[in-house]
Amino acid sequence: MPRYCAFFSSLNVGGNRLTMEELRYALRREEIDNVETVIASGNVLFDYDERPTEGLEELFAFIMAERFDIDSFVAIRSKDEVRAALEQNPFVGFGEDAQVHTHFLASQPSQQTFDAFMAAYQGRGPEKLALGERCLFVDYVEGVGRSRLTPLFIERRLGCRTTARNARSLGRILAKM
C-alpha cells in the first residue's frame, strides 16, 4: 500500500489546538492505516490505497471539519511527491535548510498568475522564489519571521491555499516515509 504524508495547515495556531494523539485517533477511526505523526506540527504519515492525492485532501479536510470543527487546508503528497519537493527545490543546498521552504499549494497556478505574483512582490524583500509542481519554493534569506512574504500574501496572489515546511523538516519526513 502506498505511503503518504498529510501536511496540515493552521494546527496549534489561532485557537486550533489539537494534540497529535487526537489527530491520530480520529484518522484511525476513519480506517486510515499505519498512522504516524512526525514533528508535532501537523505532519501525518499514513498508508492508503493508491489514488490521486487531491481526493485524499478533501477527505482529510472533511475529517478536520466534522470531528474537530477546524477549517484546515491539508496538502497530501505521496513519497515520490515529497522527494520531488526536496530534490526540485532549487534553493536546497544553497540556502540554510531552516530558511528554505516548500509551500504545498492546493492547485497549480498558471505561469501568468505566478508572473503577476512575482511582479506584486518585487522589491518587498530578499526572498528567492521558484514555482514547482503544486508547490512554491522559497528561500527566506533573512528568516521567515522577518519576511513580508506571508502565507496570506501567497494565498491571495496565487489564488489557492498553502502550507509550508522547511527543507530540514521535509528531509526528516521523507526519511520516515
TrEMBL record:
InterPro entries reported in the protein's UniProt record: DUF1697
A Pfam family this chain is assigned to: DUF1697
Gene3D superfamilies referenced in this protein's UniProt entry, alphabetically: SP0830-like domains
UniProt-recorded name of the protein: DUF1697 domain-containing protein
Biological source species: Novosphingobium aureum
Highest classification ranks of the organism: Bacteria, Pseudomonadati, Pseudomonadota, Alphaproteobacteria, Sphingomonadales
